[in-house]
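Need XRE family transcriptional regulator's 3D structure for a figure. Predict it.
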Amino acid sequence: MQYGPVVRRRKLGAELRALRTSAGITSGEAARLVGWHQSKVSRIETGTSGAKPADVRSLLDAYGVDDAQLRELLVMLAGTEEPGGRNHWWHAYRGVLPPTYRDFISLESQASAMRTLETTVVPGLLQTPEYARAVTRAAVDGLPEERLDTLVEVRLARQDVLRAEPPLELSAVLDEAVLRREVGGPEVMARQLDRLVEAARLPHVRLRVLPFAAGAHIGVTGPFVIFSFSNTSDLDVVVLDHLTSSLHLERKEDLEAYTEAFNALLFHALSPEDSSDFIAATAAGA
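Structure prediction for XRE family transcriptional regulator:
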């Protein structure tokens, strides 16, 4: 387990090394092409040191990489703090958001697919404004209203990934407790459940309910998120949230274990159609 920034450096370095090798260029030749010392190329490729966005672009130019989506993804992994960028809107909130949350948003914004198990609350990408406010207020005791407003604003801005072109493919398994826990009061919860029913109709959103009747399951160990990227599976990562930090798992065996766990949850969960009916019935008070 590693913290996000370390994982990103390692993944970025590995991908740049693979691209250099595919281009038939040695590390020494790469250094000469971009005007660096060879040791800098080596440090970036091993993840020993970070790379600036401009460094990544220079290397990609040298390797003849013109895939716009891949270039954007690798620049994102460099952890750019460039303000005002179309895909880096969250940097405007860097004085409010902790680095681990910004790191999570950056992965979410560039991922092509997201698989998640939620055992307590509705996924952030599907929360209504009122629900998001109630959850945030409960999670951070004594939060000033101004900062609460900002955090809710960020939560809602994140949902743009579901309206992007192409949109993020979201597959979520929701424990029944998520639907039963009355967050923000009856009216807020009713609107939130209606929102889930609406979201389930979207072609790129698949919701599966794991009913109490399923009994104990592998997800009792806690929620998790698996991010996948269209360019390369080597960048896939599992994110585990804790109270004060997030941990990222990127080893092949970790990804396989959590993928198998998610598939096992799908086996025990209701079908998408039955899940939608279940959510609607819960909203109706059945």
